[in-house]
Amino acid sequence: MTHRSWQPERRRRRTRLTRRGTLMLFLGAALAVAAAVTVPLLLLGEDEPAPEKQRTLVIPEGWRAGQVYAAVDRSLGLPAGTTRRAAAAPATALALPEAAGGNPEGYLFPATYPVTSSTTPESLLRYMAETAGKRFGAGHVGAGAQRHGLSVHQTVIIASIVQAEADTAEDMGKVARVVHNRLARGMALQMDSTINYALGRSTVDTTHEDTRIDSPYNTYERTGLPPTPIGNPGEQAMTAAIEPAKGDWLYFVTVRPGDTRFTADYAEHQANVAEFNAHRRAAKAG
């Protein structure tokens, strides 16, 4: 479908600095140059450890669960596969909707997460799933899903496809409309992104052989939505899924970066696909 975070005053007593005491020390340093050198020591205190330098883990929009697991492993310095096993462990107890069937795909919300020495795979995964629950559980999301006769989980599936197929907010709205239009007509979605998910890859080149694979994610041969999200969508994609652009489009193809064409006319779509193929051949030859 698409190719697309005390210094001992004297020995007789100790003083523990409060937030106000810290401020006063900075003011004192401004008034007496000699005191400035001692401020860092006073701020640290003899019995207070230096604050831990905060790190962050960025989860981009559209990443699949496998990519998230690998990123968590790297961030925490853990052996590959550790986070994947944690995600599947009942003890992790992710806050997922019943419709997800225990599969966190689609609910590892893309965001920037704090990482400290006490962070574990389980705590990060719970944070991501809880964030998704708050964002996707908002009233306007449920209302938007209902307007289209869909559940919130089905809407997350659509949002994941939109995230994978479109690069801009404008195109997201149009891709979402294509999905809704095809579902309303009982047409197969024919999305290359779902084929890529089934094959564990990411490419703009889909062959006829690819479209014949036996998979519930083969939306060329099967009608309706795939069984799960195919990645973890962000806010823009979710908004597009519940508020798609207005249009009668049934087809689209990204002829070249920044040039995605939408149409309701199959012949026009075929011409656009031919232009895409010619552009790809020229790019490979070059």
Give me the secondary-structure topology:
Blueprint (H helix, E strand, L loop, with lengths): L18 H13 L1 H4 L2 H6 L10 E4 L6 H12 L5 H7 L23 E4 L5 H16 L2 H9 L4 H14 L3 H17 L6 H8 L35 H8 L8 E6 L2 E5 L2 H20 L1
Antiparallel strand pairs: 1-2, 3-4
Helix pairs in contact: 4-5, 7-11, 8-9, 8-11, 9-11
Task: Briefly say what this structure is.
Helix content is 47%, strand content 7%. With 286 residues, it is mainly alpha-helical.
Number of strands: 4
Q: How helix-rich are the residues, as a percent range?
A: 40-55%
- Written as H for each helix and E for each strand, in order along the chain, the element string is HHHEHHEHHHHHHEEH
Helix vs. strand class: mainly alpha
What is the 3D shape?
A: globular
Largest sheet: 2 strands, antiparallel
Calculate the terminal CA-CA distance, rounded to whole Å: 25 Å
Question: Which features does this protein show?
Answer:
286 residues; globular; mainly alpha; two-stranded antiparallel ribbon; 47% helix
How would you describe this protein?
The chain is mostly helical. It folds into 3 domains: 6-48, no CATH class; 55-136, no CATH class; 149-285, no CATH class. The chain has 12 helices and 4 strands, in the order αααβααβααααααββα. The protein has helices at residues 19-31, 33-36, 39-44, 65-76, 82-88, 121-136, 139-147, 152-165, 169-185, 192-199, 235-242, 266-285; strands spanning 55-58, 112-115, 251-256, 259-263. A two-stranded antiparallel sheet has the order 1-2. A two-stranded antiparallel ribbon has the order 3-4. Helix 7 runs parallel beside helix 11, helix 8 (152-165) crosses helix 9 (169-185) and helix 8 crosses helix 11. It starts with 18 loop residues before the first helix and ends with a helix. The model is unreliable at 3-44 (pLDDT under 50).
